[in-house]
Write a structure and sequence with these properties.
Blueprint lengths: L8 E13 L5 E14 L3 E5 L6 H9 L6 E6 L7 H4 L2 E4 L11 H11 L4 H14 L15 H12 L6 E5 L7 H16 L3 E5 L3 H7 L2 E6 L2 E7 H5 L14 H15 L13 H14 L15 H4 L21 H7 L9 H5 L6 H15 L19 H16 L1
Parallel strand pairs: 3-7, 3-8, 5-6, 6-7
Antiparallel strand pairs: 1-2, 1-4, 8-9
Helix pairs in contact: 3-4, 14-15
């Protein structure tokens, strides 16, 4: 791996512009316009904006699915088109499409083999990922029987099969229940603790605020605001004080002291409330503790073990995939070389000669006769044809040929 992959910034965009053109090559839509940004290694980066702001277009350019019209974009210090960078990426699209007749386990195994992972590693990671997303009990069910949220969970598991260094999540919590949303946020925080870089785009701003340490807000294809989450959201003209419950006398004394400086109307005292998400999760965990049966997704068993620990070298024995690429010997390479026309034998060239219409008609007549023979008779057992055709047989041949021509 080149030294560029160890640089401070994992993604660097300079004046990136993407213009979609019509059939005649005329500019039609400017989806991204003069965007410059940097994503640090180990950062959880939130990409925000309304529909059509250019978020998905920018992610597709980072993935190498689209190319910038102007400007430069690098990932791991290389062009996004570099195939080697794909091995370090994990991507959860907004709308994942899987083979509907395969089971969830078969989908993960298929992608594991596409990634070139050893079979033992695939088996181990499938078990851990399905436990993590709460779908171990439906691993043998076909994808067409999954709900939308279960499909999203499977997409998250698929994106993490190769333990990527850069994870791009396009609306990762869309369609998920509160349990799934909570587990996705815990997963992002765990990956960030391991030094992974996560780029998240979502319309659920509360979820982004919980996990992202830096934000970039787009509108009309341009950057409007960017910076650390805390500094962008901080209210510098107010101060919040949180203390345990105190007596009414102490509370009134503090309130009067504050009111004397800022005014009675600017002092608000209230009891804090827990979030609805925390309350919902408590209810679900209580139901889970009772071992209530459900055909849907369940609470996950925590982040997969291999995603929590530092990567270790895989054992060498038995690590190759089942379908091996055959070794190419000098003799096999010699056999694969194309043969020139001059080197071909007369017999091989005979099959390449064009067939005239008369010859083709004769072949059709012969095939029709053979088809009409009884199954018990073979062509070899038939008596040889007469040396000279009679006038009657010639007439039959002509009628048969006419019928075949009309077909």
């Amino acid at each position: 791996m080149s030294s560029d992959t160890n640089s401070e910034f994992l993604i660097v965009g300079e004046n990136v512009t993407k213009v979609f053109k019509d059939f005649w090559g005329r500019p039609k839509v400017t989806a991204v316009q003069d965007v410059s940004f940097r994503v640090r290694r180990g950062q959880t980066f939130g990409l925000l904006g309304p529909n059509g702001a250019g978020k998905s277009t920018l992610i597709k350019m980072i993935l190498g699915h689209l190319y910038p019209t102007q400007g430069t974009l690098s990932v791991f210090g290389r062009s996004p088109k570099d195939v080697d960078t794909k091995k370090l990426l994990g991507y959860v699209p907004e709308r994942a499409a899987f083979y509907r007749t395969l089971t969830g386990e078969e989908i993960l195994r298929l992608f594991g083999r596409v990634l070139g992972l050893p079979e033992r590693t695939i088996d181990r990671r499938i078990d851990q990922l399905l436990d993590m997303v709460g779908m171990a009990h439906v691993r043998k069910r076909q994808v067409r029987e999954y709900s939308h949220g279960m499909g999203r969970r499977l997409g998250i598991a698929q994106a993490l099969l190769n333990d990527p260094d850069l994870i791009l999540l396009d609306e990762p919590t869309a369609g998920l229940d509160p349990i799934g949303c909570h587990e996705v946020k815990q997963l992002i925080l765990t990956l960030a603790q391991r030094g992974k870089t996560v780029l998240v785009t979502s319309h659920l701003l509360a979820d982004v605020q919980d996990v992202c340490d830096s934000l970039l807000i787009m509108y009309g294809g341009k950057i409007q605001r960017e910076g650390p989450t805390e500094s962008l959201l901080a209210k510098t003209d107010e101060v919040q004080i949180r203390v345990p419950r105190v007596s009414a006398e102490v509370l009134e004394t503090a309130r009067s002291a504050l009111a004397s400086e800022v005014g009675e109307d600017n002092v608000r005292v209230s009891m804090p409330t827990r979030s609805l998400e925390d309350f919902f999760l408590d209810v679900v965990q209580q139901a889970t503790a009772k071992d209530l049966d459900t055909s849907g997704a369940r609470v996950g068993l925590g982040v997969a073990e291999y995603l929590q620990a530092e990567p270790t070298p895989e054992p060498l024995e038995g690590e190759r995939t089942r379908e091996q690429t055959p070794v190419r010997t000098p003799q096999s390479l010699e056999d694969e070389r194309p043969v020139s026309r001059a080197q071909r034998t007369p017999r091989s060239l005979e099959g390449e000669r064009p067939v005239s219409r008369a010859q083709r008609a004769a072949q059709i007549v012969e095939a029709e006769r053979t088809r009409e023979l009884p199954k018990s008779e073979s062509r070899e057992t038939m008596p040889p044809p007469a040396p000279k055709a009679t006038e009657e047989t010639d007439e039959i041949d002509r009628e048969l040929l006419d019928r075949l021509t009309l077909r």
